[in-house]
Amino acid sequence: MRWATVLLSLLLAVAAGALGARWVLNTGAAAPTGTLTCSVKPACTAGEVQVFRMSSVSNAHAGTTAGSSYGQSVCCGEVCNLSASCSNVHDAVVTLSGADNAHAAPDGSYGTEVCLSVPYGVADCTYGSTCAAGYACLATVSGANNAHVADCDGDADDYATKVCCRIVDDCDNDSTLDPDDPDDDGDAFTDAIEAYLPTDSCDACPDGPTDDAWPLDVNKNGQISVVGDVLNFRGRIGATPGAPNWWQRLDFNADGLISVVGDVLMYRGRIGETCT
Q: Is the pLDDT of residue 249 over 70?
């Protein structure tokens, strides 16, 4: 048996004896909740994504993130890896008359789409005088088409029609993600963590050799083992994003660091487990 195998086996054995109780996944205080939070401001902060740009916070023209250099941004956060790109789980926030200096059309009549997609679930956007529970207000618009845009901070310069978006659970497509029960497949990894890795948040066991469903089952064979799974950490302890030995798939607690305590020890007491 190679020294790396022995070392990792000893780490697991020592941890099991010293810590006693079975490991419980800790996703960290900053783990996403599955709820969108959005605001208009000069620059998006870490963990937020710029959905589109605005020339001002009121009576404004709009532009895409790539096509415009306007000084205000619609920024959304609280969802791991939120993306402004289109995919099969996206929904159009608004359509624009162009990539820059554009009018907006919530009715979809313009050709430039501003799309919201999420790594788990399906984006769902709608428009109205209020945003229903579970929806975040991204902006307000002056009409159904040929519209100016404004923020939605509740000031008198907001428009009457709000652009509202939420995330719909992609495991059944009929309910919003529940922040109090965010693990759809019951594998002890939240949907947000599985989106980060990424693994299948709707399935706790791989259906085949290409189905990456169970985070601890790195080799996707339905069984936890030292050789097939734990040894993937060999040469990666201490790795951070950008390093040649970084592999996000092994960052089980999504803290940006591959470590023994934060990641390897999630295998404690689980070697030999199988899923069906």
A: yes
Determine the Cα–Cα distance for residues 164 and 140; give it in Å rounded to an integer. Answer: 9
CA atoms within 13 A on the CB side of 221: 10
> Reduced to 3 states, what is the DSSP secondary structure of residue 192?
helix
Same domain, 270 and 230: yes
The reply to whether 83 and 123 lie within a common domain is: yes
Asked whether residue 109 is assigned to any structural domain, the reply reads yes
Is residue 181, in this structure, part of any structural domain at all?
no
Whether residue 253 is contained in a domain is answered as yes
Tell me, what's the pLDDT at 75? 93
Tell me if 206 sits within 8 A of 214, measured CB to CB: yes
Q: Is residue 89 over pLDDT 50?
A: yes
Angle at 9 between CA 208 and CA 243, to 5 degrees: 70
Q: CB–CB of 89/73 below 8 Å?
A: no
Give the domain extent around 71: 37-168
Q: Which residues 6+ apart lie within 8 Å of 4 measured at CB?
A: 231, 234, 235
Q: What is the pTM of this model?
A: 0.57
Is 25 a domain residue? Answer: yes
pLDDT tens per residue, range 26-43: 333 334 455 788 999 999
**CA distance linking residue 195 with residue 77, whole number of Å:** 14
Of the candidates 110, 140, 168, which is a domain's last residue?
168
Output the furthest CA–CA distance in the chain (Å, rounded). Answer: 71
Could you give the number of structural domains in the chain?
2
C-alpha 203/C-alpha 199 separation (Å) is 9
